[in-house]
Amino acid sequence: MLVGQTIGSPAKGEFLIEKELGCGAMGTVYRATLTLNGKKLPVALKVVSLGLLGNESAMARFEREAAILKQLRHPHIVRLYGTGRFRGTPYIAMEFIDGEPLDRALARRGRMGWEEVLGYAKQLCQALRHAHEKGIIHRDLKPSNLMITKDGTLKLADFGIAKDEDVTALTGANSTIGTAAYMSPEQCRGSKVLTAKSDLYSLGVVLYELITGKKPFYADTSMDMFLKHVNDTPVRPSKLVADLPVWVDNLILHLMEKSPDARPLDAATVGQLIGVIEDKVRNQQSAGVDAATARRIDRKLNEAAGMTDEDREAARALKGKKKKKRKVEAVPLFQRTWVKAVGLGVILLALVGVGVWLSLPKSPDQAFEAVAKAATADDKLEAVKEFLKEYGGKDHPKVAEARALFKDLRAKKADQQLVNRYGSDDPTKPNRRKAQDQESQETMDVVWGAMKAEKEGKLKEAAAGWTAARDAIPDVDPSKYADEDAVRVTAYRWAAERRLADLDAVGREAARLDAVLDKGYAEETLPAFDERVPETRAVKAVRLEKMTDRAKASRVWADLAAATSADADQRRWHLLALGRTVATTPDKGKEDEAKSHRLDVVTKTADAAASKWAAVKTDPKLLVEWRDVRNACRDLIDLYADESDEAIKTKVDAAKALLTEAVAK
Q1: Residue 21: Cβ-neighbour burial (10 angstroms; 0-12, 13-18, 19+)
Q2: 140 labelled catalytic
Q3: How far is Cα 158 from Cα 178, in angstroms, rounded to an integer?
Q4: 85, containing H or E segment
Q5: pTM (predicted TM-score)
Q6: Cβ contact 141:203 at 8 Å
Q7: pLDDT, tens only, 428-486
Q8: Other CB atoms within 10 A of residue 455 CB
Q9: pLDDT for res 361
Q10: Rounded Cα–Cα distance for residues 23 and 602 (Å)
């Protein structure tokens, strides 16, 4: 919309807006040229979204970012050049970075070498040190906020949610802000007191992802991700990258300690540790090269000639020299026999003391460390089972935590067992749907009925079945959780509760998708489609439903259902997709009718957008109508650019041209 316009003033600087770089929740970023005192400088101009002008909290954050950037002057932090307003809309002018964010580089390369990553980390530590010394906590460290220039210089960007410790926080008590995958445990808890060590945890997550190509935790919802940051232990990076030096491995886990007190002192210390690691690796490599290439040192000449002590004495006699008297050396105190005896006694006493200490029973807090350190789900299940065997009857917070963890892990295992049994239709093998051990065939038939209803997209029927199964299977006393015989059948009850929770979440996800779309259309921030992200697939399907193209929506829902079928953590998306697939699938024999309807929808939408734009484009006061035209064009482009029908392709091309004009306006 602003491309081609000049804003600002000659006195404070004029900005010629050249192109749109991107659009986010807070606003649109343009590339512009700043002209001031006869000099020209490329800048990134961030203009707040029109939909946020009446949002006091959002405006406060926008102004906060500008106020924070004014305090920061560092070669590894994006620089602020100025602020202002254009027709009442605030903007921030920042340093333009000719490069790319690390998340884009990571997506292209899969993962990065640890040497390169540590090089970036040292630069980032310098930036964090500068910000922290100013009392500023970034709170949103992630690869997308780390820009890398063409010469390899790192620039820390986006202080939109940074916390200035000298200013009252904009977030309320017990609230969270940031990107869930990179947030510290204290952020996830909504702690009112955040320190610079929160950024250090996020730094650890970033290093983990850049080096391994994977995030330390994956979850389907923000709440599940919060719980993982608070409770779960990540897999050691060295298990994913075989040649990773142990010192790098330890540094990342040190940064990701759950307790802030257990993390490094500050960003400067982390930078120093990285330098030490680089020296250690360099020295290790140098020593290895020396050991591999060294030549055996030549023997001394007399040893090479075979000279003995008698030969040396004879030589002295010929020279007229007397034999030297051997000096009796005094025995050092610590080598004397009585001292050694006393020392041995002390060591034996110490060993006895250690043995007694080791034989003392561990506290629940100490014993639970084995559970926290378990890397895989199976290892964690075994560890928590052993913990409960010893402490299951005690009244202790760690015991309660262990019970909840055991119940969750055992429910997942039971759920997978049910999936395997339900999917076993091989006639040459025993019928695994038949009741086993303590199972009731009547109850198991209800379970199979619920699973069948889910598969057919009959979610209400499935919920009724799982409710009946849950109520039919008795629970077990928590003190018996470690007894496998006691929980074998009860675990199916827990699996039923888990399924019911997923079914209950389907309705909330559907409502949330509507809210995402409403906000996306209002602020022109619709999420880009990414087939790896279930939510963006679902958003695309809902947009198609709103376009009344139910047939194509059904295809998108079916693809989402197939993509999420094997991942229990994404079951809510799977269930939502199954239910919507059934609801949107056209009747048999009406495929041609669906194609005809699609062309009609595309044609009407494109023609209506063109007609409205012709009527409103000359009146800058009709911003809402301008926005509606752009949204209609984006719908056509995002939803129908993959169509092969020539008539539809023509309308999509027209929408692209219209969008270009509407954005420039």
Answers
A1: middle
A2: yes
A3: 11
A4: strand 80-86
A5: 0.49
A6: yes
A7: 666 778 888 788 899 999 999 999 999 999 999 999 999 999 999 999 888 888 888 88
A8: 14
A9: 59
A10: 25
Cα→Cα distances 548→542, 543, 551, Å: 10, 9, 9
CATH for 99-167+177-286 is: 1.10.510.10
- What Cα–Cα distance (Å) separates residue 25 from each residue in 49, 61, 523, 612, 631? 8, 12, 7, 26, 15
Whole-number Å distance between alpha carbons of 102 and 148: 7
Contact between 251 and 200 (Cβ < 8 Å): no
| Mean of the per-residue pLDDT values of the chain | 81
* Alpha-carbon gap, residue 277 to 532, rounded angstroms: 36
Which residue stretches of 480-590 are H helix?
Answer: 484-487, 490-523, 534-546, 550-563, 571-584
Q: Cα–Cα–Cα angle for 345, 348, 351, nearest 5°? A: 150
Q: What pLDDT, in 10s, does the model give residues 51-90? A: 555 566 666 667 777 777 778 888 888 888 878 877 777 8
Residue of 98, 103, 140, 514 marked catalytic? 140
* Per-residue pLDDT tens over the stretch 135-156: 888 888 999 889 998 888 999 9
φ/ψ of residue 35, rounded to 5: -115, 120
**Residues β-bridged to residue 148:** 100, 154
Where does residue 46 rank: exposed (0-12), middle (13-18), buried (19+ CB within 10 A)? buried
Task: Give the separation between CA 518 and CA 531, rounded to whole angstroms.
Answer: 22
Least reliable range by pLDDT among 40-54, 268-282, 440-454: 40-54
pLDDT for position 114: 92
Res 539: pLDDT = 92
Summarize the confidence of residues 650-664 as an average pLDDT: 90
Give the C-alpha separation, 13 to 10, whole Å.
Answer: 5
Q: How far is CA 129 from CA 12, 132, 136, 200, in A?
A: 31, 5, 10, 11
Calpha distance 616→67 (Å, rounded): 37
User: Stretch 241-250: mean pLDDT, rounded?
Assistant: 90
More confident residue, 575 or 621: 575
Domain covering 1-96, topology: Phosphorylase Kinase; domain 1 (3.30.200)
Cβ distance 201 to 185 under 8 Å? Answer: yes
Phi, psi at 29, each rounded to 5° = -110, 130
Could you tell me which residues are beta bridge partners of residue 149? 99
35 with 14: CB under 8 angstroms? yes
Pick from 191, 202, 137, 186: nearest CA to 165: 137
Of the chain, the end-to-end C-alpha distance in Å amounts to: 4
Quick: pLDDT tens for 379-426: 888 888 888 888 887 878 888 888 888 888 888 888 888 888 887 665
Give residue 101's region: left, alpha or beta (phi > 0; psi -120 to 50). beta
Give dist(CA 3, CA 33) in Å, integer. Answer: 12
How far is it, in rounded angstroms, from Cα 595 to Cα 73? Answer: 58
Question: Could you tell me which residues come within 8 angstroms of residue 547 by beta carbon, excluding any fewer than 6 positions away?
Answer: 601, 605, 635, 639
For residue 543 the two structure tokens come to 């947009």
| ∠ CA 195-197-202, rounded to 5° | 120
